[in-house]
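Entry 14: structure prediction run for Synaptotagmin VIIa. Input pasted below.
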Amino acid sequence: MYLNREEDSSKGSVTLSVFLVSLAVTVCAVWLVALCGVCGWCQRKMGKRNKPGVETADTPDSARGRGEKKAIKGNKPVNSPKGHPPDADGRSSVTDLANSLTGDMVMLSPGSEEDDGEGPVSEKLGRIQFSIGYSFQDSTLTVKILKGQDLPAKDFSGTSDPFVKLYLLPDKKHKLETKVKRKNLNPHWNETFLFEGFPYEKVRERTLYLQVLDYDRFSRNDPIGEVSIPLNKVELGQIKTFWKELKPCMDGAGRRGDLLVSLCYNPTANTITVNIIKARNLKAMDIGGTSDPYVKLWLMHKDKRVEKKKTVTMKCCLNPIFNESFPFDVPAHVLRETTIIITVMDKDRLSRNDVIGKIYLSWKSGPAEVKHWKDMMGRPRTNVAQWHALKA
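Run finished. Output tokens:
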């Protein structure tokens, strides 16, 4: 009987102990859960970190996104029309080439074609020094042509044969000329010209016009540049000397237009590829106020013609798109004696074709042409494009 009571007592104590331990564990668990529930800092941090659609400034994805956005803005294609993004692979299509340039082409002559940022290089034509004076006693205007400086080369030999024409505008019937200085880009003329029998009042109504030309024995003389000075803006009582920058000759006919050309030199294949892309604002040569332009190319070695090529004719068009490529074999050892003459012609069915304008590309032509040639040599296997103003 006593034994049974002891067993019942021990079972009761064990059951009580288990209950107390279970209760203690439950209380601790509830306390921990309650504590975590009260502390929402962890939950807020975790929620912000894992919240979908939100990127922090430190995530690689957001950094890449900002980088791409900046690249698109900074490298926006100049010739892409508004509202038309470039192709997904970053290169322009053939249509884009017709409109301007291909994606792998380098455009090196920013200028002004409407709003697309293209245009010919502002060419330096050199300058001229001269003096002007008037004798009230003899009613004589004295003009002395002193010298020229940094004139562009117009001949295949890399030089020019310059001389100067003088007019007192608006009279163009009576002109005076200096002597021709052979093969000289910095000529010294030192020639004096007298306009006699001009009352001072008449002189002040005139404009002194100087035109520098390159003499050509077998064809028309090539204009180099011009200077105009209204004499009513000059103090004629004493002799004054001027240095004036030459400006492109209008020659009474206005501009002849511009041609976009790309050059690509391949030193491995010893070739120069000329791509005639397009022209703009060509001079109208026909009675109907338009032209039928095509482009003729001559590869010259020294003064000898080596190879001739030409584009198709574009009917009744002053802004033609040609987009034709012409490879020429040019060994490395003759590059310095090589000239590529590009002539824009107007096709005429009933008479001889008219010359609209020319470009001479070589290492010794005018400043714009030399720049294009050097850029081509400095970027082998790359299409280097540049606008050129057509010249007479």
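Notes: The longest strand covers residues 140-149. Will compare against the previous run tomorrow.
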